[in-house]
Amino acid sequence: MSIFSDVEEAQPIEVFHLVKVFNEDDDPSKVNLTIGAYRTDEGKPYYIPVVKKAESVVLDGTLNHEYLPILGLESFTKAASQLLLGDITQRQEEGTIFGVQSISGSGALRVGAEFLVKHLKCTTFYYSIPTWENHHLIFMTSGFQNAKTYRYWNEETRSLDFDGFCEDLSNAPENAVIILHGCAHNPTGLDPTEDQWKKIAEIIKEHKLIPFFDNAYQGFASGDLEKDAWSVRYFLSQGFEFLCSQSFAKNYGLYNERAGNLTFVLNSVENVKAVKSQVTMIVRGMYSNPPNHGARTVSTILNNDVLKNEWMNTLKLMTDRIKAMRKSLRENLENLGTIGTWNHITDQTGMFSYTGLSASHVEYLRSKYHIYMLRSGRINICGLNTNNINYVAEAITDTLL
Ligand code: PLP
After folding, report:
1. Atom 12 of ligand 1: nearest residue by CA position
2. Mind giving me the DSSP string for 28-70?
3. Pocket residues for ligand 1 (CB within 6 Å)?
4. 3 state DSSP class of 121
5. What pLDDT, in 10s, does the model give residues 229-244?
6. In this predicted structure, what is the pLDDT of residue 60?
7. Model confidence, pTM
């Protein structure tokens, strides 16, 4: 007998499970298009040079390992919220915009969601169909009771189902939390246009819904940090109160350092003290205190114009490579006469492409060609490079015959 006898085994997490299977696969032509991490044209993880430089500053021997404040390193949270929202120093000084350091983007969502349940009495949240698969788990674990969805991907046209999106939002009950991808939507790579964002904001305002932006890919949609922040900044300009999570996993390549930020935007100075104190209690009860290294590294870069410039140039190079791979995949498929239309590959932005391949196509590609992608047909474009792109295009062509 064991006290653990009745524990049921959970399903494996698809993306991490696939990475494990991929690593165990000894076929020389294998291709990993699963996990959302940047790869160089040599198929290698990218240790961004300016991050390495900043780390040498962080590790210069003058730091100790004392606790950070519960809400995190202020030079980091301030700079991170500014990166997101632009010139907000006055709001930061009065306190109506503040950041909370988090365990990367996931941790920001988790703390924010628990705050919304406990202190704004939220019970219902909405996420796009499809979305990053962890949204559901994070929000349910935080105490939300109703998980609802809004339409997003139109399977037939392989584009945004904007009418469906608006209709579902319009039917949401007051105080429902709406998870919005700030840019580079995962997994579809489709973002609303500026006019569409305006309409979304209008509906959210009219129906008294609460926007919760998830910004895990700032810089990865267009290569331009400002452009990628347009949606969130628009909501700010319209006087919304909202939350926004930020991840520095992707745009700094700091996946395992868990550097993230949760920005609160409030309308009244009067509520700041209470809100901050309650977020402090949530963090205290969840993990007590944030880690130092990733946040200090990001802060070192964001607070130094020379390093920040170098980082922005690198981001541009990374997104240029992604765009080149999109173009090349589409061209390859079209030149091979592959069944179907392939303009969606270049219409989409960010790291991911929602290919439109079915689960059985995905299975065929894995078993016959050792090409790995999510069951949904989502591929990480960064996994493509000049050495494997022809192979992948030919394999897709064969799969669709
Ligand atoms: N949000 C989205 C849409 C994501 O795709 C991810 C990562 O894949 C995250 C949030 C959070 O990632 P992390 O916790 O690694 O920062």
Report:
1. 105
2. TT-EE--SS--B-TTS-B---HHHHHHHHHHTSS----PPPPT
3. 36, 104-106, 132, 181, 186, 214, 216, 247, 249, 260
4. coil
5. 999 999 999 999 999 9
6. 84
7. 0.97
